[in-house]
Write a structure and sequence with these properties.
23% strand; Nucleotidyltransferase, domain 5; 16 helices; seven-stranded mixed β-sheet; alpha+beta; 504 residues
Length: 504
């Protein structure tokens, strides 16, 4: 008798696994199994695909072991993926022809500029809901076609697959029997037409990406095949596939139009359910597929921030301002006594609403009075300020939030959470589960397995761990600093346009 679901989350820096029962309750969570980020050149961010697969398998095996579940009793495996990351591989052998190119990678800026000069920006946004930016998969695919000789050879032989990382992982899990991706992940490529939910042939021709190299498209609850028994000691159906942020939105039970969540991960992502209408209602936010279940599609607004946890890691590992994340609150114990300083967190360019891959990070206002406390405070404030940017875009698009559910590692930082509440003027509910993404694909896999039906009232797996309320006295000062920061940011954004070297 099948009694459980295995939900896998292959993320930017690690893979995790979760076991859920038939009542949608989490019974075991795996350790995190890290993957090594490689940066062979400035702006390049890569992974070893085999290391991604190894971490994913170990996470699944660890979750099964901790749950004490017989693998033959697992009804379905679901999987979330990191979105825009691209792997090119031989569709017959399954062998990658190079590293995985991360969503954080910026090597395709020249290709983006070329497409911009061709006047493709407006058409891409109108059809795909995305911005012309190196963040998305299409430019990475084009770069591979132009720069990896083996890609041309495999293309001629009809054996090339160019796809988001989930496609390669699914191919490996199913012994090459399935080469596909789900529509929510595909909506992050800059190639999916949001209205037809199919690859846009006209865009493919203009961007010079052959349709033949792309995977098959499926809904988010479709059972797509079976996982080979060599991985988890049993042949288990595979279904419940979704890109990570949409999965987290589903895991936070944001099923109704207007409900939103914010995940503080490597990047920071605010997503809001906008219902069944794919109409692009914002010029600065992204519109993507949330999920497609039983032939019905929900769409989302997405406001992304490229560096959140990543800038904290940089502050710890590279700048050595603190030795661990937990030390940040100690350093900022008396924030009012710390001299003011401003930080521009453009370490990988800027996403919404600026959409500028060229702008670089900067500190503004340094004097001899500043010390590491000022540096740390300015970095954490900058994360909060960028979230405020996205919140204002959501509000301008007609989404009014009375509170906000948040998840992810940085939610444990008290300074940041209180700052966020002060800036947004609403309660910030830190949810008691950090694995919202795995929970989301677990629920989708449960739908695929028939554990649940559409319209099921899922039990709450999480409750607010802490609720931060706006402090009216602090809020005014926070908003004033935000306005100062916005003015400085507008100046910094102009630097590349005025001849200041991009490497400054």
């Amino acid at each position: 008798m099948t009694t459980h679901i295995l939900a896998l989350d292959q993320g930017t820096t690690s893979s995790k696994g979760v076991i859920m029962d038939h009542r949608a309750q989490i019974v075991a969570v795996s350790d995190k199994f890290p993957i090594q980020i490689q940066s062979p050149q400035i702006g390049w961010v890569e992974y070893d695909p085999s290391e991604m697969l190894d971490s994913l398998i170990k996470a699944g095996q660890d979750a099964i072991r901790k749950a004490g579940v017989d693998p033959s009793n697992i009804a379905m495996v679901g999987m979330a993926n990191q979105g825009e990351t691209v792997i090119a591989f031989d569709s017959e052998s399954g062998e990658p022809i190079g590293p995985a190119i991360s969503w954080q990678d910026r090597r395709t800026t020249e290709i983006i500029n070329r497409w911009q000069k061709q006047g493709l920006s407006a058409e891409i946004t109108a059809k795909t809901g995305l911005k012309l930016d190196p963040y998305f998969s299409a430019a990475k695919m084009r770069w591979i076609l132009e720069n990896v000789p083996q890609a041309s050879l495999l293309l001629e032989q009809g054996r090339l697959c160019l796809a988001t990382s989930d496609t390669w992982l699914i191919a490996q899990l199913t012994a090459l029997k399935n080469i596909l991706t789900d529509v929510s992940t595909a909506s992050r490529t800059m190639l999916l037409n949001l209205d037809t939910l199919d690859w846009d042939q006209d865009l493919l021709e203009k961007l010079e990406i052959p349709k033949a190299v792309l995977p098959k498209l499926v809904g988010n609850t479709k059972c797509v095949g079976t996982v080979h028994p060599k991985w988890f000691a049993a042949e288990i159906p595979l279904g419940g596939l979704c890109v990570d942020q949409q999965a987290a939105l589903f895991g936070q039970h944001c099923f109704t139009e207007g409900e939103a969540k914010l995940t503080y991960g490597t990047g920071c992502f605010m997503l809001a359910n906008i219902g069944a209408d794919s109409t692009r209602r914002s010029t600065d936010l992204l519109t993507s597929v949330g999920w497609r279940i039983d032939g019905l599609t929900q769409y989302v607004f997405d406001g992304g921030i490229y560096t959140a946890g990543a800038v904290v890691d940089w502050m710890i590992d590279k700048m050595q301002l603190v030795d661990r994340p937990e030390a940040i609150d100690w350093v900022l114990e008396d924030p009012a006594a710390i001299p003011d300083l401003f930080f521009i967190p453009a370490l990988s360019g800027l996403a919404a609403p600026y959409w500028d891959p060229d702008v670089k990070g900067a500190w503004y206002g340094l004097t001899l009075t500043h010390d590491r406390r000022s540096l740390v405070k300015s970095v954490m404030e900058a994360i909060g300020f960028r979230v405020k940017d996205i919140f204002e875009l959501m509000a301008a698009s007609g989404l009014i939030m009375d509170d906000l559910k948040v998840d992810g590692g940085l939610t444990q930082n008290r300074f940041l959470m209180q700052l966020q509440s002060n800036l947004l003027g609403i309660p910030i509910a830190v949810m008691d589960i950090v694995e919202a993404t795995a929970l989301g694909v677990g629920l989708l896999a449960g739908l695929s397995a028939g554990f649940f039906s559409t319209g099921t009232e899922f039990p709450e797996n999480s409750a607010p761990q802490t609720i931060y309320q706006p402090d009216k006295q602090e809020a005014q000062a926070c908003l004033q600093r935000y306005q100062q920061w916005c003015t400085i940011l507008q100046e910094v954004v102009q630097w590349p346009k005025h001849g200041i070297p991009k490497t400054v």
